[in-house]
Design goal:
Blueprint: H1 15-27, H2 32-47, H3 54-58
Helix pairs in contact: 1-2
Length: 62
């Protein structure tokens, strides 16, 4: 999937969880933002939540 647009997500998180996320991202050679995206995708797949392709969402913007 090639992302053409991104959105900003600001959130508060327990510092201990943030550090765990940083370590997980570092071990996977990912940025924290990319690690969060991967974790969301994995959770959605596990829960049967479909994620539409970006082109489907933004096709009316063209």
């Amino acid at each position: 999937m090639v992302a053409t647009k991104t959105a900003t997500l600001n959130l508060r998180i327990d510092p201990v969880l943030k550090e765990a996320l940083r370590i997980a991202a570092m071990q996977d050679h990912r940025s924290i933002a990319n690690m969060v995206e991967i974790m969301i995708r994995q959770h959605c797949e596990k829960m049967g939540i479909s994620i539409p392709e970006q082109q489907e969402i933004f096709k009316d913007d063209e």
